[in-house]
Design a protein that fits this description.
The chain has 178 residues and is of the alpha+beta class. 31% of the residues lie in helices and 33% in strands. An 8-stranded mixed β-sheet has the order 1-2-3-4-5-6-8-7, with helices on both faces. Helix 1 packs across helix 2. It starts with a strand and ends in a 7-residue tail after the last strand.
Length: 178
Amino acid sequence: MIIDDGILFRPAEEKDAGTLVQLYDQAARWMRQQGIEQWKPGDKDAAHFLAKMRDGDVWLAGDTDGRVVGAYELWWSDEEAWGVQPPVAGYVHRLMVARGAAPAGAGRRMLEHAERRIARTGRERARLDCVSTNPRLLAYYRAAGYRVVGEFPHKEGKDGRIYGVILLEKRLDRLTAV
């Protein structure tokens, strides 16, 4: 368990898959209420999160009372959006905040936690992608120090829908490891 500014971080375990599905669906419903066409409730099931736990890192963020306030996935490659790349980056996916339970700034704390996890491996960049039709999220990541490095206009969703994503990265330059 890692404590960062009042948020407790721990790797997700098999028993957390249902919690991750609920968190994803809540985030997807919130996006829809905000007019953001990005995630859809029901798109990610327990099998998705269990596979990500096997293939990479899935982290839960909690408060001091034990409530889950967010989660994220950390991948070590992302060929679908970034193509084949040398192992210089970690890829942050599904940064999810539990609205109403998370303290202010929880999303940024989770992003910083992911960046330190990446830096700890010796990789020098954090990368992520953002659906190109979400200017608020793009502004959020840019304010966190990410810069646009490209665009992948033809990413295919689980439902066959084609959409564009903006590719962002941040140089980590000797972040403190966790």
